[in-house]
Predict the structure.
Amino acid sequence: MPNIKFYPHKTQGKCKIYARIRIGATKDFRLSTGLTIMDAKDWNKKTNLPKPSKAENKNLKSSLDNLHNKIHSYILDLERDEERSLMDITSRSLKKLIAQFNNITEASDIDNLIPFSEHYYKSLKDRTYTKNGVKHAFKEKTISKYKNFARVLGLYESDLGRTIKLTDIDEKLCDDFLDWLVDQGKSVNTRGRFVKRLITITKDAERQGLKVNPGYKNLKGFEDETIVVYLNFEEIDKVIYTKMPTQRLEVAKDWFIISLFTALRISDLFRLTKNNIQIIDGGRYLCFKQYKTRRPMDIPTHHEVEKVLKKYNGGFPPLYSQNEKSQRSMLSTQIKKVCEFSGIDNVVEGRYNGVKGMYPKYKLISNHTGRRSFACNFYNKDNWSVQEIMNITGHESPKNFYKYIDRKDRTLSITARAKFDQLEIESNNQPKLKVI
């Protein structure tokens, strides 16, 4: 009879559950079940199962019972089979059995990259991640990104002409993948993000007890030099005081003004309604939870934003489309036209369609420009602290905030120069003591 016992690989905290499977005197396997306990302190060492004190542990116990029965039945079937024997049981065959239990696509190919990548993005809908001690569910947007990545890997494998195994993932394969992405016209930042996703997927396979190439740990994601394009206050005034030739462009201009003085992400901008406008201690604020971070925000309304809200009876401009992707695309196109019509046409460095070069500024304007403009403009005002600005942009760390601002801008250096000059004047006006 097989002896099957489960155990957490740590004594406390969130961790994976492993199975020890002993068959006779010669076969002894230790494999990941692909299941996780949220706190190993809830493990019952006598029953080798989680204590059913919580709903999540009851579900985990049920899953482990089902897995135990599946493994047990598999071994007994082999024992009764006239053509096979217990000697046919290997670590690989048990891994495939467990993968099948966990609904991994094409369990027979579990050691291959593409099937595992497909399993990974499908599994995210039932998984959580912890950030700052709080558990979060994966958003559909994140799942969609990994789904697309699995599709791209499939295209690469097809061009490569051979199956990619998890044990193939090392620096050599990554370099070849990056060369292929260049041929596909992918930008530097896209290539860097794809490497990060490849690392994440391979690391997850390793956690599940699958064999991977240790060389994957030498891989590193990357990103291109950030070129910050933003509108300064003078250019913003041009936009504000230029009458648009069509109502469609006027609506785009109004959305852009709101973005310029609230630093809102596009994912938050179009979710706002009149209900988000609240009065706190006599002042008006936009109150909402950020879609990306779920962080509560209270953003004071700038007087230019109030002018826009007044135009729409205290509400927000109309949407071009109820479909968020369509809305994003249409607004991005329209605000470029708004800036072109406003005379924002000086030639600056930037990326247009992913290609770095010198372009008329209006061509480089996007939905994100409002957010960048707020960060840059108020960072350059000497009476605003970084923390005050981050409280509005919603950045959680200065490191991420500084990616948003133009560090080449000399405004702060010029301000510091003026302050040094003032100190010199004050110093020269001070009475001097003579040594006698």
